[in-house]
């Protein structure tokens, strides 16, 4: 796999961030139930690393998004997701 150039990353990482955050924000309760938390964390960490490396985008926006998703999990009808969301909220606050 070829290395990502700084110019490419600078051009597209903001767009990728917007699309990824929009995707997760629009998940239904049913989709949240089936969402694997480890996979979400991995995607979030990769996006965060990419933004740190190639963009001036604010990490505060990602932290706010993480809190938003934790609240979404907390509001889920799945007990497992609710407990996970509550644990994340406690850590983030």
Task: Please sum up the structure shown.
The protein contains five helices and no strands. It is mostly helical and about 90 residues long. The N and C termini lie far apart (about 40 Å).
Key words describing this protein structure:
93 residues; elongated
Query: What is the structural class?
Result: mainly alpha
Provide the β-strand percentage band: under 5%
Mean pLDDT across all residues, rounded? Answer: 85
Distance between the termini: 39 Å
Query: What is the CA-atom radius of gyration, in angstroms?
Result: 14 Å
Domain unit count: 1
Summarize the biggest pleated sheet: none
Task: List the secondary-structure elements in sequence, H or E.
Answer: HHHHH
What is the strand tally? Answer: 0
Uncertain runs are none
How would you describe this protein?
With 93 residues, the protein is mainly alpha-helical. The protein has five helices and no strands. The relative contact order is 0.14. The model has no long low-confidence stretch (mean pLDDT 85).
Secondary structure: elements and pairs:
Blueprint: H1 6-25, H2 29-34, H3 37-54, H4 59-74, H5 79-92
């Amino acid at each position: 796999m070829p290395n990502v150039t700084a110019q490419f990353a600078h051009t597209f990482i903001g767009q990728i961030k917007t699309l990824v955050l929009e995707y997760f924000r629009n998940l239904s309760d049913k989709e949240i139930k089936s969402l694997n938390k480890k996979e979400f964390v991995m995607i979030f960490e990769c996006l965060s690393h990419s933004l740190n490396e190639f963009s001036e985008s604010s990490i505060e926006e990602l932290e706010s998004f993480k809190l938003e998703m934790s609240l979404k999990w907390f509001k889920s009808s799945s007990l497992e997701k609710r407990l996970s969301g509550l644990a994340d909220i406690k850590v983030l606050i």
